[in-house]
Amino acid sequence: MTLPKEFSVFGEDYGTSEFKFGVATLGNTPDAIDSRGYFPDMRSALLNLNSRSGKELSTGRDAQMLVVGPPVAQHLEARRDIGERMVYPMRNGEIESDDERAWLVVKEITRYGLLRHAPEKAVAPEFNGFKCVAALSATAPRYMYDRLIRIHKEINSEEARTLTRALSIIPQPLAVAISQKRLACTVLEGGHGNTQIAPVSSGVIFSAQITLNRGGSDCDLIAAEILRDAGYSDLAREAKLVKVFKETLGLVPKNLTKIMQEKNSALFETVFKIPSTKISIDLGKNSWQRFLIGEYFFNPNHEIFASYYRRGFPRPADTFNEGRTVLGTTDLADVIIQSVQKCSFEIQPALYQNVILSGGNFAWHVPPNLTNYAVNSPTKLKKMLEEKGIAGSTVELTKNPVYNVWQGCIAYGLYIPENYEWDWDTREGWLQLVASAEPAGEQDISAEI
Ligand SMILES: Nc1ncnc2c1ncn2[C@@H]1O[C@H](COP(=O)(O)OP(=O)(O)O)[C@@H](O)[C@H]1O
Ligand SMILES: [Mg+2]
């Protein structure tokens, strides 16, 4: 059996909520697992019985200490200490250098992905390791690159085979631009934990990029508040339910003021049912609040949210970008303008003309019966930019918003030549994890970078 070139390129998108991974042959849809790991209470009797009966608890070496991937769901018992035991390492795109539990989770989700796709030696003896392209937040400091390199080397060593032969690491917004084949554009990558705004001209213009501490998880918070206000406090505590509720019923308003004037319209009403359960949510007269879920992401500064903040609802935290503070409540059009204005005036028109939206948090849908009230993300943002004097901008949502970063990793890996050595200045090329004189595939992980 000969392995096609596409098989050797492996993409790894370390998202804030999901780790998307897999080989190029997967096409448009990679595999994905939650970006999280669970550290079980080893005193649990049931857990011990399970492990004694030989049931595998984890794919990792630290099988008894950490669970990643689908088995995590079995540990979602109603425990008070779940918050401490469940670790989401990429929560806002950055990990502290000494946060060892978070790094252990990153290592185990990485191992999970590689092992899931690496062929058995007997099936493909010629397999000599993947060329991995990993995508991190554009704000990831150098030590995160170093640690990710170390993690890939350690996995090679611990598995006693070359799973990763060469590694490259690129910023997530650059991966989006690559997936869209754009040279000059402004990428907005809207994930669960954060939103990255990055002007791109050949590469990310790091001095102009802004990361907002605002993403899908904040829309979940406002959705939970709306559920509580409608009398569903118990359900509001179930994070996954709130997320599905938000994705199904949340809307982006064309004009929130108009919607508030028509608050009681029966058009906005709908009943949310969870299949195979008796759970049904009817917001009744509060149904218009569905529009607050989307508005909050685009403009948490809207006056309607003042009353939420007054009663203790947390404002999205401010961020510090290249020496300046960006308020967590800044509306998205303002953030784009702040970012583009940091770039040379010559490329500013191209940056406004090519605004690319990617990431699940831009995937809001518009129900056919509400087209006069709800809009998709590009329409919303274009209008917001127009209101601030930026006319004629082009705003597009990518075709595959949740998986674009992974697709960009794959395109990059297929495109750059094998002998293109990694350069720390440009952060491009391949870091060879295996010395070229040695045959890859066996246990050779000694090469230093
Ligand atoms: N159709 C949708 N409408 C609104 N939000 C969505 C939709 N699909 C996904 N999301 C939200 O997008 C976020 C996940 O996006 P993703 O790009 O995978 O994030 P990350 O890469 O940070 O893990 C979640 O908050 C999810 O609820
Ligand atoms: Mg992402």
Q: Number of helical runs?
A: 16
CATH topology assignment of the largest domain:
Nucleotidyltransferase, domain 5
The rough form would be described as globular
Q: Biggest sheet: strands, sense, closure? A: 6 strands, mixed
Write down the domain tally. 2
CATH-level-2 architecture of the largest domain: 2-Layer Sandwich
CATH class of the largest domain: Alpha Beta
**Strand proportion:** 15-25%
- What ranges have pLDDT less than 50 throughout 5 or more consecutive residues? 51-63, 440-449
Present as ligands are:
adenosine-5'-diphosphate, magnesium ion
Strand order of the largest sheet: 3-2-1-7-8-19
Q: What's the overall average pLDDT, rounded?
A: 89
Structural class call reads alpha+beta
- Beta-strand segment tally: 19
- Radius of gyration equals 23 Å
How far apart, in Å, are the first and last alpha carbons?
A: 32 Å
Q: What is the share of helical residues?
A: 25-40%
